[in-house]
Amino acid sequence: WKVLEPVDGKVALDVVTHHVYPDGGTAGSVIRRLDRDGDYPWEAPSVRTVLRRAGWLGRPFWVTETGYNAASRTPAIEQAQQAFVVNLLRAAAVEVPWVHRFFLYEMADGSDTTGPGWGLVGAAPAFRRKAAFEGWRGHIAGTAVDDAEFVRVALPDRMQPGEAANA
């Protein structure tokens, strides 16, 4: 963390971002690291404490990278990934409402089937929907929307993997 010097009386920063990953694979560990200081003096302060000390609490804050690595791609580990995603999204609104956005890493797994499996869907070209995708989709379908509205949609109804379209 670095506190920026004011430029023309204002801090030249629109939003603070942070990457936070779970300890032990639980959504609760992400929430704790964001909101609660460690139990011991040698443990790092929470993100919220750092923001408060810097005078940034209440300003836009985004978690721009978090997720659960389902590298083994077994049904059990994919269910654990789904639980992480759903529990994080549910808890975030209640326990850390000062976090304005969460971005999951990443949407699709890489093509190396023995490599990391952070994606909500499998690798190209199939992009198999994992349990985490369905959990994420179910959560956002039931979430209240802010004042954003569609003005125009200019996308085809269906696309094939790899097909390009202008939006």
Write a concise synopsis of the structure shown.
With 167 residues, this protein is of the alpha/beta class.
Estimated share of beta-strand residues? 5-15%
The span between the termini is 37 Å
Radius of gyration: 19 Å
Kindly report the spatial arrangement of strands forming the biggest sheet: 3-4-5
- Overall 3D geometry? globular
The quaternary state of the protein chains shown equals single chain
* Helical percentage: 25-40%
Catalogue the unreliable spans: none
Task: Tell me the number of helical segments per DSSP (H or I, 4 or more residues long).
Answer: 4
Number of strands: 5
The largest sheet is:
3 strands, parallel
**Order of secondary-structure elements:** EEEHHEHEH
Mean pLDDT: 85
Structural class designation:
alpha/beta
Topology diagram in text:
Layout: E1 6-7, E2 10-11, E3 16-19, H1 27-35, H2 47-54, E4 61-66, H3 75-95, E5 101-104, H4 131-141
Parallel strand pairs: 3-4, 4-5
Antiparallel strand pairs: 1-2
Helix pairs in contact: 1-3, 3-4
